[in-house]
Design brief:
Length: 175
């Protein structure tokens, strides 16, 4: 082999190697772009899924909060209605007690007048005052007049015991 042939062979080998390197570089570059594009698409898909999930969770949380608020409003309305009804019944009962005491106290006007007036005042307070006002005024009265409160509690206790015993006897007679 002569020097020119060898030179041509080396030159051809070098050109083939350069071409192989260029081809390999192009293929690696194409594969890299394709991998980057696939990764970008996967990332976009993941973002979309995350945003959709976040929107759904937010909507569900809002629905749950609205349902809880509605239920709380319903419970509050029912409690207030029950309190107003009980307060009204207690006030009506106090009015009836005041009238009964008034009717029964014809002979002892001075003492019964104060009792009737106090019971009537209680009925008025029950109608006009809120629950917290009633509790506060009851506590203040109990602090000022503990003996009267204790005596009143004892009388009420005996009256309730008598009422319960009377109802039990009526049930036994019917039963």
């Amino acid at each position: 082999m002569n020097a020119n042939t060898l030179k041509d062979t080396v030159s051809n080998a070098k050109n083939a190697a350069d071409e192989a390197v260029d081809n390999a570089t192009d293929k690696v570059s194409q594969m890299s772009r394709k991998a980057r594009d696939t990764a970008t698409e996967a990332l976009d898909d993941a973002k979309d899924i995350g945003q959709t999930a976040a929107r759904k969770l937010k909507a569900q949380a809002a629905e749950a909060a609205a349902a809880a608020e509605d239920r709380l409003d319903d419970l509050s309305d029912a409690a207030q209605s029950g309190f107003r009804s009980a307060k009204s019944k207690l006030a009506d009962g106090s009015d009836r007690l005041a009238k009964a005491l008034h009717d029964a106290a014809d002979g002892t006007r001075a003492a019964s007048g104060r009792v009737v007036e106090a019971v009537s005042d209680v009925a008025d307070h029950l109608r006009a005052d809120s629950l917290s006002d009633l509790v506060s005024s009851t506590k203040a009265y109990a602090r000022r007049h503990p003996g009267i409160v204790a005596a009143g509690a004892a009388v009420l206790g005996f009256a309730f015991a008598h009422l319960i015993q009377s109802q039990a006897r009526n049930r036994n007679r019917r039963g």
